[in-house]
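Deliverable D4.2, example record:
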Amino acid sequence: MAKSKKSGKRTKTTQPAKEEKLLKNETKKVVKKTNTAKKTVKPSKTKTATVAIKAEEVAEKPAEETVAKTAKTGFFKKMFAKKYEGNENILTIFKSKKIYGALLGELFGTMFIAMLILTIGAYNFIYLFLLFIAVFVAVHKISGANLNPIATVGMMVTRRISPIRGVLYLLAQVVGAWIGLSIITAFLNAGGSGVELPAMTAIPEGKFWSVTLIEFFGATMLGFFFARAQQFKHSSLTFAVIATGGTIISLLLVYVISANFFSLDGTSMLNPAVALMYQILPKSADNVGQLLGGVGLALVTYVIFPMIGGAIGSLLSDASQTLTED
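Output generated by the structure prediction step:
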């Protein structure tokens, strides 16, 4: 109730005045709630920031420990990490048509290599360099252009290809070299010229370990260069130049060392598949034991030790690469 100015009597409060009073009360309540909310938010932000800082500090310690552990064990993990895609094994590899194309690539590529060496010779370095580049470029996108058991074993050891693919490549290379020999022999017989196919010189008596270690040294160099070429596998030409250049350099050094230091000529090949076609295995002996012994020594010199050398060369390449990355 309110008093009237004229009569002094009390009068009822009008409806707008009531509404105005209610509005003020509601406004006060909203302001109180807002202030309370602001007070509540401020400490929560502070707490969140504090928790975040503590989390970062805690996270830094495991990160430092992880880096320290990686510095100790990362070298070997990188060295022997799987570098090929998928999970190839004897049960899965033949399900893809790509393996058949890759095997044909290795077969034809090694066949061409064998034909070139059987006709041009293993020591015409300039011709071989140019022709090998063409073969490597042609086959590279099909199979990776190993074309040499030395390179294939190195790829297997460094886990760039699966073991089953490596074994299939080795078989394809031997078969390809044999087909190359058969083709050249057929042309030779058809021509009737009486020219004999080149054969490697038999290892002189007392020179077994000299020839074997020379092959081992050359194969190690070849494996190193081939592994380095893998760093440029996305460019067929660059890969071919490095792989071919490494092959020619290895052959050249082996030739010079053999001829100048040991008076040996025609005793090195640096390709076990082609070496087998160069009649390195003895065909006759006084008895079976002597024949088997000669075959075993030839395989040690031209197959086993070169493959070991190729594996070591590839590992040395990967080791140097891993050290530079660390």
